[in-house]
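Service request form, structural biology core

Requester: graduate student, group of Dr. S.
Request type: structure prediction, single chain
Budget code: on file
Notes: please return the result as structure tokens.

Sequence provided:
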Amino acid sequence: PPPGGGGDAQELSFRALSLLPLPPRMRQLALQSSDTSLRLSAALHAARTLQRSYEGTLVLRGEPPPPPLGGRSVASAVAQKVLPSVVTIVPTLLRNATSKGTGCIVSPDGLVVTNKHVAGLTTGIKCYLGSNPNTPPIKARLVGTDPDSDLAVLQLEGVQGDLPVVELGDTNSVQLGEWAVALGNPAEFDQVVTLGVVSGFSRNSNNFSRDPLTKRPLLDCTPTALLTDASLAPGMSGGPLCDAWGRVIGINTLIRGDMNGMGMSISADVVKRALSDIA
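Core staff response, request fulfilled:
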């Protein structure tokens, strides 16, 4: 039994320390001590050990490690890299109604990927760069849509051709349970970042999981959509879902009310194919 025999929290702490990867002497001292700071130091030591182990696994996969836990968080590092390429989209709908969505810049000359339900049925589109609400809006025109994948491509007008762009990742290399960072501009907020994991894959054999040239179904190993527990909110549709290195692995498209509000994102591989077809 834990020292002092105390309640549920003490029992949980005792069990956690028993399971953590600690040197035997440190584990013994932490288990025998009632000093909270000593137990915290042991837990931090274990966390660093696990982080080094995780980084070693990534090296075996040929991946550089993400930002260390002792520095910026994964979400903070991804936000710093990706947010300059994220735009707020304000479409004007029928009867002059407006809504709000998100998009990400995929080419220096101003091509933007977003959802069709954000910008596909509009009478005008304005985009805002950066987090300053006083930034003058940039007009955009609709290049085309892919209704089967709920994707749309916009072209920003009057830009100089040196805009920051996102890096589109390879969905086939994404692993279940790895970090997922969602970015977007919901409601009255600008540049919202949420952190979760890749919770699942969808490989439905529908229209947007077919090769655009041959129209034959793609291999079952190619995900068409990702499920994530990173929080999404109205207005984040069309924003990027990124891995721990800031590569876009999906475009956020809907919130699954039948799955406790988990989010669905169209995979980066589908985005690449849609871009080649539309743009």
